[in-house]
Every structure is written in structure tokens, then in C-alpha cells.
Amino acid sequence: MTGHVEPRMTAGTVGFVTGTTGLSPSGPTSAVGPVPAGGTLASARSGKPADPPPTTAAGALLVRRYRLGTRVGADTAAGVEFWRAEDTVLRRDVAVTLLRGFGAGSESDDGARSRAQEIVAKALRSGSFEHQGCARLLDVLTPGAPGLPDGVLGAAVAEWVPGRSLTDAVADGMLKPLAAARVLQPLAAAAEAAHRHGLVLGCDHPQRVRITDDGRAQLGFALPRPELTPADDVRGLGAALYTLLTARWPLSASDAARAGLIPADRGADGIPVRPGAVRPGVPVELETLVTGTLGNGTEAARVRTAAAVRSVLDEVVAEADRAVLFPPEPDGVPPEPDDVWQHRDAMRGSVDPRKRRKLMAGLTALGLCVLGAGGYAGVQLGAMFADPSPPLVLGNGAASPSGGGTEDQEPFRDAAIRAIGAAVYVEAGDPDNAGRVSRVIDGDPDTGWRTSTYRQQFPALKSGVGVMTAFASPVQLSSLSIESPSPGTEVEVRSAPSQTAAIGDTVVLARTILDDGVTTVSLADSQPAQYVLLWITRLGGGGTANTTEIREVEFRRIGD
User: Fold this and answer.
1) CA proximity to 184, closest of 290, 41, 303
2) Can you spell out the DSSP letters for 204-217?
3) Cβ proximity of 47 and 61 under 8 Å
4) Is there a cis peptide before residue 52, judged by omega within 30 degrees of 0?
5) In the chain, where the domains are located
6) Residues 6 or more apart in contact with residue 532 via CB below 8 angstroms
7) What does the angle CA 10 – CA 12 – CA 16 come to, to the nearest 5 degrees?
8) Is 222 or 100 the better-scoring residue by pLDDT?
């Protein structure tokens, strides 16, 4: 969400830069539908019959601007519907949350409107909040705004989050535990930031959460219930993690059915069973986190803040990145094709012909190198025994037998060296696509890592983002090469005392601007380094689509 300018008031509608005009609609508005379960517009105590609330149809035009497309869900407790719509002015998809006059607490017309005003007022206060874990808020329509269909008491318009729903994300089966932790990191960070600003996201409903194409959970729809507290967001984070791990929703069974999810199994005490009972291999840290957020553990194990959720997720992911050199424990899910560790039987059963060709080429090259080294050694031994002349020791101004100076001697040859690890480095905020960063050192130029797409160039939202690489011990590097399809990207090569060092503690070794393809950077004058940071200070692309992709980083050290 964002509040990039101050909201302006018109006749019953509130908008931002792309705000509405308050004009009456010119297109279709609504059709009458059945009374939904959960209440009517008239008070049951008054005995006055209530008209059934209308159902807005696809194609309806709100305030002559937002054309409803597909209804993707509803939160009946909040009295809202979730729609994918089109902004007909800017020709882009948007997420529209329609606030209706029914749901919990709407016992009368006056009560429903009062509640709607409270919900919309909270949405307006969130206009100044911005985070990558939330869809950006674009417009808020207040109760009574001209151009709203009958029965619609308000609406919030946000950016459409491309990708999948939470239901679609687990449709093919539960995620690996580490992947689930990575997915939830941005949403947990967003909840933490929102709570610091006195806001509540409302992520305790499965249809409010969407998963982007690059695997990040984001809050896609606004207007949560006004009675929600930060504790409800914490429960929602735990519920989302539970769903990613088990493909089941542990909170409201009706919300689960409405979203197309299976309700979580419950024990005799009515509490959802722990994730490890549904699928094997859930790390104890994640299982403890889930039970603590859902309030199933002891009082001492209760997780009460979104900051605690984010901290545990970050630690689980960081520890997994550090332990990538060791085979993981079985977790009940087959390995992905790009995983470093594969089951032996699976590798025997299906061999990628492309990888087989690469392996054969590598073995052939290795054999030729061995033969070449053997031949070279034989020649040297033969020369040593065949030449009786004593070796010539060069002193000050002494010349070699060939008559040349020391500069005529063969220079040291550079040798390739591989980094043993890579991690996304940021000063603040979420690491961009952390699950894919190891691809920059996997030796395969067909795979790579990409930053998030930023609407503004650095340093508007971030000072930069980088890739921290590590070696087993300090190395004297002669050069490195970066393969990238993002020309114009500006990169600083820095040495770091540790992989978590502050940017102010790193030392700039070189600066370069990437070409389209391979860019080589000389590091001949640098000091030995164990940690090398590629710090991106300017992204490729342009306009509102600023991003950089790095497919491979190769290092060369000074030979000996």
C-alpha cells in the first residue's frame, strides 16, 4: 500500500493521484441476488422486513472508472467481496474490495453504514503505509459515494498482485518446509511494519493472501474487519504457514470451504493437529512457530508478535543457506529439479540428456588435461636429465640465458575458483528472491537470480541490493566475470569482513557497468578476501520496471 500524495475529498469519494471523480456511473451497476447467510440489512428486533442485498455483477462500472471483472472471493465476517477489476483510465488490472451492508455487526442500515465508515476510515489511515508485502493502495471510495451500486457502502482499490491464490499455491501438494518459510517472509515483514505504525493487515483470511510469480506472499485485498488486532494478524501468519506446509486451513472452516481449501484436522480438544502429524520432516522451529502463533502451545511458547514470526522465518532460511553443503533431512516431498541434493534412485531413473552431454564433455576435458599434464611433466623430466648445464641464478641486473630481463619470464597463470555460498544482501527490508540466489554460482548460465521489480530506481526505495559470496578461506582474486542480460546495471565489487557486515564496513574494490552478456572486472590490485559483495547501486531496465538479472558469477584467483 502507499499514500504517495495526500488524499483529496470529493462528493463522498476519496482518491489519491488516480482518485475517482465522484461522477455517477454510465455502465451497468447491480442486480438483485439472494440474501447471503450471516444477516440482513434490517434489524431483526424491529420486525421490519429487509430487502435482499444486491449482488454486483461482472461488468459493473464503479464511479465511471473501475470495471468489475472476476469475483475471486469474499470475507463474510467483514462483509466484503474481492474482485479482479480493470482501471479503465490507466488500462491496468486492480484489486477491488467491495464493502457490503451485511456481515457480522450489520443489524440495521444505520449500523451497517456506521460500521462501513469505521472500516473505510481505517483504510484511509493506512494510505501512508507502504511495504513490498502488501498491494499498493490506490483509491478509497467512501460510503455514499456517487457511482457506487446500491448495497455497496464503500470500496478500496489496490494494485492487482499477479500470481496465484493461496489455494492455487498448494493445489499440487504441500510445499517443502524451507520453501514455505521463504514464501511467508515478505508477508511477515509487512505485518511487523504495519503493527509498528498502529495498523492491522487482516491476513487471517485465506483469500486475502496471494503468492507472486517469484514466490512471495503478499496481502492482496484491503478493508479488514475493524475489530481486528495485531494478534489476529499473528494468527493469520501462522495459519498461512500451516496451509503452505499441510495444504489445510487451520482457522475458520467456512473460510476454508469458501476458498476451496481443506479444513485442518482437529484433536479431541478442538485444536488443529500439529503440522508434523500431517506431513513428515517439518523442522521443529517451524512447527513450534505454527503452534505458538495459533495459540496451541504453552503460555511460554506463545508467539505474540509479527516481529517474532519474521525473526524465526529469517533464521530458518539463513540456517538452511549455511547448511546447503549438507544433505537435508527427508521432509516427505520429492526434491525439485533445481535442488542440489537429489535422491539416488531418482537420479538413476531419469537422467537429463542435456546434463549427460555436459558431463561427458567435462570428463573428456578432464582426460585431456590429465594427458597434457603428464606429457608436460615428461618433457620437463627429460630436459632436466638431458641438460648438464647448471642452473643460472639471477642477481641484480643479471640476465636470463635467453638474454631477456625478468619481464620476459612467463607470468603467473590465473586459476578459476568457485565460491562455496551466496546470499542476498540488503541493508533493510526483504531480500529479493532469496531462494534463487545460489544459481549465480552453480556453473549453469541458463539459470540465474533476479532482483524484484522496482517502480523507482535506487536509492528511492532502497539504497541497493546485492549478492554476498563466500569462499572457504581468504583468496587473492585477479578478476571476476558477471554474466547478465541487464545492461546498464551499475555494480560495486566490495570485500566484506563477514557475510552479515554492514555496508559501511565493506571496502570498494572496483566499480563497473554491466554489458549485455559477460562483463569482466579486474581485481588485480585487491587484497585477499573471503567474502565478496556484488552491490547493485543502479538497476537495469527503466521507467517503472527496474530490475537486474545475474545468471552467473565466475571468479579467478592469482595462480601460484
Assistant:
1) 290
2) -SGGGEEE-TTS-E
3) no
4) no
5) 8-45+53-159, 164-322, 415-557
6) 419, 468, 469, 470, 471, 477, 480, 493, 494, 495, 496, 509, 555
7) 50
8) 222
Q: What single DSSP character describes residue 104? A: T
Over residues 167-177, the pLDDT tens digits come to: 999 998 889 99
Q: What is the mean pLDDT of residues 266-294?
A: 90
Cell of 115: 460500521
Helix (H, G, I), strand (E, B) or coil at 160: coil
The Cα–Cα gap between 155 and 78 comes to: 12
Beta bridge partners of 158: 95, 137
Cell of 484: 547478465
Whether residue 536 contacts residue 512, with contact meaning beta carbons closer than 8 Å, is answered with no
Helix (H) or strand (E) segment spanning residue 112 = helix 109-125
| ∠ CA 184-452-416, rounded to 5° | 105
Rounded distance between C-alpha atoms, residue 375 and residue 381, angstroms: 10
Instruction: Please give the CATH topology (third level) of the domain spanning 164-322.
Output: Transferase(Phosphotransferase); domain 1 (1.10.510)
The kind and range of the H/E element at 275 are helix 275-278
Which residues make beta-bridge pairs with 541?
A: 546
Contacts of residue 275, Cβ cutoff 8 Å, sequence gap at least 6 = 242, 245, 246, 282, 286, 287, 290
Got the DSSP string for 300-325? TT----HHHHHHHHHHHHHHHHHTTT
Question: Which strands form 529-538's sheet, in the order they lie side by side?
Answer: 421-425, 465-475, 529-538, 490-496, 507-513
C-alpha cell at 254: 467456512
- Using a pLDDT cut of 90, give the percent of the chain over it: 50
Task: Provide the 3-class DSSP secondary structure of residue 179.
Answer: helix
Quote the CA–CA distance of 343 and 347 in Å, as a whole number. Answer: 6
24-28, 330-334, 369-373 — which is least confidently predicted? 24-28
Amino acid at 342: Q
Q: Does the pTM of the predicted model rise above 0.70?
A: no
Q: Which backbone phi and psi does 440 adopt, to 5 degrees?
A: -75, -15
AA identity, residue 172: D
- Work out the number of other CB atoms within 10 angstroms of the CB of residue 271: 15
* Per-residue model confidence (pLDDT) at position 256: 95
* 55 DSSP β-pair partners: 31
CATH for 8-45+53-159 is: 3.30.200.20
**Helix (H) / strand (E) containing 93:** strand 92-100
Please check whether residue 275 is in contact with residue 239, taking contact to mean a CB–CB distance below 8 angstroms: no
Cβ atoms of 462 and 429 within 8 Å: the answer is: yes
Q: What is the architecture of the domain spanning 415-557?
A: Sandwich (2.60)
How many other CB atoms are found less than 10 A from the CB of residue 281?
15
